Amino acid sequence: MHRTIVKLAVAAAALIGAGHASVADTLPDLGGKEVVIASENTYPPLQFVDPKTGAAVGWEYDAINEIAKRLNMKVIIENTSWDAMIPAISAGEYDVAMNGITIRADRAEQVAFSDPYMRSEMYMLVRADEDRFSDAGEFGANADFLAGAQPGTTPFYVTVYEVLDGDEANPRIKLFETFGAAVQALKSGDVDLVLTDSTGGEGYVATNPDTFKLIGEPMGSEDFGFIFPKGSDLVEPFNAAITDMRDDGTLEALNQKWFFEYKAAE
Known about the structure:
alpha/beta, six-stranded mixed beta sheet
């Protein structure tokens, strides 16, 4: 299972899109429709605030802008917290949300998902000098080690059920309002581990190679999708655009940009 995670992300676009035919000539035209999209901007390299420019950037921003171009729609970005995002979409407060959102059956009871645009795997993010444990078993066996997590997220549940004892109230899990806050707690030594999918983890390691590293084997895979209110008429056009971008190599080009070129420039 050892592999470079950036290669995983690049290969995933081809894996998820296998067998689709191009729809370039039949994409819907939304006629300049305004589409309000929610984002948290705390999940590099998918979406984050560039420390050099202060601008909100990332894979998902580029993808959304390309979807807007292909579907003839106008994008309006609004920021919201992760814990409010799914309820807000469910209530119709936004048209779409993007935040590296894992496609899950329980969430699909509240919101509609697009087709997957990326596949990732869960890894252990630790400080660069960590040498006390190297896998989930060693971490779980030492009661002194603490994990940081954002409640309600995939990393939280994987920490609970695959790293620790299955108790969601385990005091060894320190909860934070955002994923970024959990990472800062890891950096400062308040916790010893933060689980992250490969995309987010690679983003933190690439921009802070002397501070963080990823260790251990991947703990399962997850697909990311955009979310919409139930019954949204945007799901089908978005799926058509995602398929078109996968078929013509745009998704792979975005992976190249954000998993290779952006990091090289840091």
